[in-house]
Write a structure and sequence with these properties.
The chain is an alpha+beta fold. It is built from eleven helices and four strands; from the N terminus they run H-H-H-H-H-H-E-E-E-H-H-H-H-E-H.
Length: 288
């Protein structure tokens, strides 16, 4: 069998396979491949999760909601006071909008990322695209921080990620927001005591770690074991200012989502091209 015909059959098979996968995506929850989706985390009934906020399913909507809460205060504030109040509102809304647990792509919305993630054992299906995270009730610490940073970046704030990894390999993800000429630490996932942090003008993580009493009291609901708190929060690093915290993953997921929608067209086009190449080859051979 000549090579053009071999590739022709391969492209026909791939175009049929990916077209079937595309059709199955239209079934959404009835897609039989959903049995291979990543398990959805369940609510632990300990967080401030409010399911009535589920209608906030895009960055535009949650940003508008935060704006409305701020304007309802109907009071005059200085620029610095406004920045503090607004960032606290955003953090609070995110804490109530999500409960903890990774939101992941499924075979019905981005099957290529799921397949690649399953094959490699990586976490490539854990969503980082902000508007896609907003379609889920659950989000991990990195995902909730991505949402907060995205909202505030659109409001003109400077943001940066703060990542933690203790000696026991337990990690965490939060962020800092710049206003009033300094950085302010926010953690919408573990929900530290806002009143305590505001008492110190919402300090950055460096200040919090330098004052162990502030760290322990603000995270008293996270763990009663002070050694585990010190281990996790004592090892941190900053991301670059106003840089998306997972840019490579963002590019990967947007690419795989695009091809999940239309890769069958490329395979079909390739099959058509190879068909004509094979046909031309036969005509050329018949002349001898």
């Amino acid at each position: 069998m000549n090579k053009p015909k071999t590739f022709l059959y391969l492209f026909i098979a791939l175009s049929i396979l990916t077209l079937v996968l595309q059709c199955l995506r239209c079934l959404k929850d009835k897609n039989p491949l959903t049995v291979y989706d990543y398990k959805i985390a369940s609510y632990n009934h300990k967080e401030e999760y409010d399911p009535s906020l589920g209608y906030l399913n895009s960055i535009k909507k949650i940003k508008a909601h935060c704006d409305s809460l701020f304007y309802l205060l109907d009071a005059k504030y200085t620029l610095e006071q406004s920045a503090e109040i607004y960032t606290n509102i955003v953090s609070s809304v995110i804490s109530r909008r999500f409960y903890w647990g990774y939101s992941s792509y499924t075979f019905s919305d981005n099957y290529l990322s799921v397949v690649i993630s399953k094959i490699t054992g990586g976490d490539y299906a854990a969503i980082v695209v902000p508007d896609d995270i907003m379609k889920h009730p659950n989000a991990a610490c990195s995902q909730q921080s991505i949402i907060m940073m995205e909202i505030l970046k659109r409001k003109g704030f400077k943001t940066r990620k703060v990542t933690f990894l203790g000696n026991n390999k337990v990690g965490h993800f939060a962020c800092e927001i710049f206003y009033a000429n300094k950085w302010h630490f926010h953690d919408p996932t573990l929900e530290p005591d806002t009143a305590i942090l505001n008492r110190y003008d919402r300090p950055n993580i460096k200040f919090i770690l330098a004052h162990k009493d502030v760290l322990l009291s603000s995270y008293r609901n996270y763990s009663k074991d002070s050694s585990s708190i010190f281990d996790v929060f004592g090892h941190y690093s900053y991301g670059n200012t106003n840089v998306f915290p997972a840019n490579n993953a963002l590019i990967f997921q947007k690419t795989t989502k695009f091809f999940s929608n239309c890769i069958w067209i490329f395979f079909l086009f390739g099959a058509v091209v190879l068909f004509f190449i094979d046909k031309t080859h036969k005509v050329d051979m018949s002349e001898f």
